[in-house]
UniProtKB/TrEMBL annotation:
Keywords: DNA-binding, Transcription, Transcription regulation. The keyword Ubl conjugation does not apply. This is Helix-turn-helix transcriptional regulator. It holds the Pfam family ExsA_N. SMART domains: HTH_ARAC. The keyword Transcription regulation applies. Coiled coil: none annotated. Residues 182-278 form the HTH araC/xylS-type domain. It comes from Sinomicrobium weinanense. InterPro entries: ExsA-like_N (IPR054015), Homeodomain-like_sf (IPR009057), HTH_AraC (IPR018060). GO terms for molecular function: DNA-binding transcription factor activity; sequence-specific DNA binding. Transmembrane segments: none annotated. It comes from the Bacteria. PROSITE patterns: HTH_ARAC_FAMILY_2 (PS01124).
Length: 278
């Protein structure tokens, strides 16, 4: 199963990186499951059909009466047609930069907020229907599809949803802000679920393996081998429990070169083998 990088998949000029971007997504064939690397936070305004999304530790399903605000990151999408064999949603992507500008302008201070799930369910209503109609009208006038104009539409829907959901929505918006990690942490955590060896991750950090291990223990207070194995096996357990994937589908993604080594490590960690999960 190929990984789809979104929204780049929908942008004609790959060199263009807009802060706001709207795409009409239509289909007439069920997409049973697709791997998605969502590079920007995104509204998915579902208008026809059904959608289910699996994240690392949770999942959500919505119908045409609901829409979603989804945090950027990796997920599995399942999109299903309605009874008339149609699926349609309007996708509205926005960068962290424009979100930060909005929060600075409209939300006073930086109150503490708990870690949120990676989605927010929106109940569709007459205002949202009118809003989506206005976005469709904009598509008829390409000269209006500028970042500045779409930024106004972004601000409009954000203010409406704050009015509709109050502090709960504000808290979720704040949870979308990803705090800057150190370059070392960024490289390590970007490769947690790769099949790179420690010396290869050390190379990417421009360090020898011994220097990398010392730096890692100072940063994470645990050895890199133990930390990586813990992260990868915990994610593997979550993926297997969701019931959509088998050990043979994920062992390489979890950093193991063969299924046998993965199964042994998994059983040593949890006391049962991957195939025992039903």
């Amino acid at each position: 199963m190929l990984i789809e990088n979104i929204p780049e998949l929908f942008i004609d000029d790959s060199r263009k990186k807009p802060d706001v971007f709207v795409h009409d997504f239509r289909m007439t064939t069920d997409i049973v499951k697709s791997k998605v690397n969502l590079r920007m936070n995104m509204f998915s305004f579902l208008q026809v059909g059904r959608k289910q999304i699996h994240f690392a530790g949770t999942s959500v399903a919505v119908n045409k009466d609901q829409s979603l605000l989804i945090k950027k990151g990796n997920c599995l999408w399942t999109e299903l047609l309605d009874t008339e064999n149609i699926y349609y949603c309007k996708l509205f992507f926005f960068s962290e930069k424009i979100l930060r500008e909005f929060l600075k302008k409209h939300i006073d201070g930086s109150p503490e907020h708990k870690k949120e799930v990676p989605f927010f369910i929106i109940e569709n209503d007459h205002y949202i229907s009118s809003y989506l109609n206005s976005l469709s009208t904009i598509n008829d006038y390409p000269s209006l599809l500028s970042d500045s104009f779409l930024s106004v539409k972004f601000e409009e829907i954000m203010l409406y949803l704050i009015g509709k959901y109050g502090d709960r929505f504000k808290s979720y918006l704040q949870s979308l802000i990803v705090e800057e990690a150190s370059p070392f942490r960024e490289i390590v955590e970007r490769n947690v679920y790769s099949n790179l060896k420690l010396e290869e991750i050390a190379f990417l950090c421009n360090m020898s393996l011994s220097t990398f291990k010392r730096y890692f223990i100072n940063e994470y207070k645990v050895s890199p081998g133990k930390w990586l194995q813990e992260k990868r096996l915990q994610k593997a357990k979550v993926l297997l429990e969701q019931g959509h994937l088998k050990a043979s589908d994920i062992y390489m993604e979890m950093g193991y070169n063969n299924l046998s080594n993965f199964s042994t490590a998994f059983k040593n960690k949890f006391g049962f083998s991957p195939k025992d999960i039903s």
